[in-house]
Request: fold
Amino acid sequence: MTVQDAIRTTRTLKPNQYSDEDMTRWLSDLDGQVYRDVIVTHDHRRHRERRIYPTVYIWPHHHKKPHHKWPKKPEPQGVLPYFLPKDADRVLLITHPYEDVYIKYLSAQVDYHNGEFDRYNNAMMMFNTIYQAYVNWYNRAHVPRQDNVVVT
Reply:
């Protein structure tokens, strides 16, 4: 789904007075959150492999270190804010079958800014359900990064 597709679908399902630029900013905020909270915490180059047993590497006991150095992993590229019209065809981060998350999020933002808080709460519950399903799938499908540092 592209930025333009999300806005067009939301306008069809929930006509509103907000500009395309406002909706693009909301989509940009959501993709920034997805990138920071989900994608960057995983090794983006590797998917989990289905294994019956874990892989064990055994180094000869007379060597304290492996003979070669492991290649340095490149850092994932960041998500820059989206701007119209140049980013209208930008593909959003969450893909099928979870891409409806963008429609639910935009609908919730429209309800929130209209002061319709009961509708906002319902839209956010639907958004959270789809978003959590996406996060759960991503966690199952991608290997967590092993070089994360906890800063306190």
About this structure: The mean pLDDT is 83. The first helix runs from residue 3 to 13. The chain has one domain: 3-144.
